[in-house]
């Protein structure tokens, strides 16, 4: 893996002929014959569908519902491949999860690639295979896209931006401003795994076992919740900034305080070990397949029962409560009842996490 | 302008404190307080609307029509600012034009920024101002977005990916497969200006006057055409690969031959001069506010009359015809009637044109 991720670290790009068997050249990004060849041989072979096959300037969508959800995210993660996932899987699940937490069934995706000249075709193929696999799992169709190739050194290997359109299952979660005192806070699974996995892959830490990213589709469990009439007041996948960032946003939006119980928060043993060793808090670590939700007390048991039926959320747990505003927006009960303030993430603990 | 575009060409990024007054630091991309500050101070101040203000994971759209168009494009142009436009204007008009040529009224946009650490805030502000101005012209609302900051050297200043959703004005142009012999080919204005402008800006050519990009919104003239019952068989904005790429795609899709008359093709004098000097063909140069359309002969006069009422298309002209398949997909009648084959663009004449 380190070979794949570091093959461009030499002093300069090898001189490439226009068509190089091993590596992608600038000519493939120029909109002419080679661009069409790239699209025909690498994209359409994997993602063929009536809309994408048109290769029009835009895909035409027909929706049966009146409200749609629309989301976008850019993915710049390094390394491109890491335990538990890769940039392609991340780009599909990241955007489809954003639709799902917004109350929508993910339906259509766009795929925009910015490729550095000299990227091996084998790397692109591996990422596209992963995108194909992930979009099948998320049940979302790639209907439009764009490919740019920039000169060696102008980008780091590969950036992906996906946008998604989904159909809202009414009523959508009303959002953080609707939170009420005594609402219950639930996380869908162990936290901090994605951040820990990227940190270990990047720094070549040699823990055993290595943490694996939680990168996963959250569509199925969330759609099940919505369909069962268990729509939470708010749901958010806890990506950059981790669970701490979500709770701070919710406290700000609602004017209330989130109080969580440290001992109730699920964390994988290896993630906990890494955090203790490095003096970091898993609440600040990014997740890519874990959400936080806030729901009314009377829905908690049914919500947990349903989430535990799905693999991605089978370790869902209550971690705390929404309370009237205290002196701080987010408090953590540590050890034997001492409440400490949870800081909002602010610095740059780990760039290019997603 | 060259200062702005080249300020990162030194040996390394100056060491930045976490919050630097002049330049963007990694901390602004980490999802915490500073990320929210960037979004609050730079994005919401410019683009505030009910959907974007939610800062949810996805925007919720309500459409009155059943069919929607969905498009995406990544923008990597260098320099960021050039005569006639900049990366922001390009990112808005490029994507809204893709919706418009697909038969749709552009409605909603997503905005994904990948920013290189160290980019001056003044540059970001100037680009965001341009996006604000362009989205008002195109009458499209930015409803969702994402911002990543990557370490110095991992990207070249700024990449933007916009996706757009529009409402289809039925019937949409049926597309290139519907072309018929004796259809008439029209371009909406002088060709090659964007490519020539970027070439001159990049190579510091000192022509007088310098060519300016044609970067413009094509929504208004196209919506007028559709609304007037003058929907063409096919429309395409002639971006990467230029008019030559569009005609080749259409010939391939229809199994017919496109024959164009060189003397009928509008080209600005300065663009023509540059092409002659460098031995390049404006048919291969990119445009960013110019489309090609194919329509039935009986609609030609009304189509031209209507296009000439709009500033972006007031120099629209008939350039050729669709004919039964000949020995080549695209032919150009040059000089006194000699037909020559027009090659499909294939190499890399100018990377990072858009």
Give the gist of this structure.
The structure is a homodimer of 354-residue chains. Chain A has 354 residues and is an alpha+beta fold. Chain A is built from ten helices and 14 strands.
Describe the structure.
2 copies of one chain form a homodimer. The first copy, chain A, is an alpha+beta fold. Chain A folds into 2 domains: 4-168, PurM-like, N-terminal domain (60s Ribosomal Protein L30, Chain: A, 2-Layer Sandwich); 176-341, PurM-like C-terminal domain (Phosphoribosyl-aminoimidazole Synthetase, Chain A, domain 2, Alpha-Beta Complex). The first copy, chain A, contains 10 helices and 14 strands. In chain A, strands 9-11-8-12-10-13-14 form a 7-stranded mixed beta sheet. In chain A, helix 2 runs parallel beside helix 5 and helix 4 (87-101) runs parallel beside helix 5. In chain A, 59% of the residues are buried. At the A-B interface, helix 2, strand 1, strand 2, helix 4 and strand 5 of A face helix 2, strand 1, strand 2, helix 4 and strand 5 of B.
């Amino acid at each position: 893996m380190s070979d794949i991720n570091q093959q461009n670290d030499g002093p300069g790009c090898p001189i490439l002929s226009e068509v190089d068997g091993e590596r992608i050249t600038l000519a493939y990004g120029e909109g002419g014959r080679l661009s069409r060849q790239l699209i025909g041989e690498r994209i359409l072979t994997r993602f063929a569908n009536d809309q994408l096959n048109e290769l029009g300037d835009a895909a035409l969508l027909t929706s049966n519902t009146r409200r749609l959800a629309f989301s976008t995210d850019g993915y710049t993660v390094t390394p491109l491949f890491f335990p538990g996932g890769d940039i392609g899987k991340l780009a599909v699940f990241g955007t489809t999860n954003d639709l799902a937490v917004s109350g929508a069934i993910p339906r259509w995706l766009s795929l925009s690639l910015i490729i550095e000249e000299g990227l091996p075709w084998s790397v692109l193929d591996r990422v596209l295979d992963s995108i194909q696999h992930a979009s099948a799992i998320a049940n979302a169709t790639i209907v439009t896209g764009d490919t740019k190739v920039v000169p060696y050194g102008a980008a780091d290997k590969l950036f992906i931006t996906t946008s998604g359109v989904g159909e809202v299952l009414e009523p959508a979660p009303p959002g953080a401003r609707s939170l009420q005192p005594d609402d219950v806070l639930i996380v869908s699974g162990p936290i901090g795994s994605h951040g820990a996995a990227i940190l270990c892959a990047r720094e070549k830490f040699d823990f055993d076992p290595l943490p694996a990213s939680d990168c996963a589709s959250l569509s199925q469990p969330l759609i099940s919740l919505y369909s069962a009439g268990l729509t939470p007041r708010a749901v958010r996948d806890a990506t950059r900034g981790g669970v701490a960032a979500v709770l701070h946003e919710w406290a700000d939006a609602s004017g209330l305080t989130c109080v969580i119980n440290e001992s109730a928060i699920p964390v994988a043993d290896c993630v906990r070990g890494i955090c203790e060793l490095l003096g970091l808090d898993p609440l600040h670590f990014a997740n890519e397949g874990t959400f936080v939700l806030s729901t009314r007390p009377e829905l908690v048991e049914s919500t947990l029962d349903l989430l535990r039926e799905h693999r991605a959320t089978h370790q869902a747990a209550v971690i705390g409560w929404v309370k009237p505003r205290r002196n701080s927006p987010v408090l953590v009960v540590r050890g034997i009842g001492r409440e400490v303030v949870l800081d909002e993430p602010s610095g740059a603990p780990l760039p290019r996490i997603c």
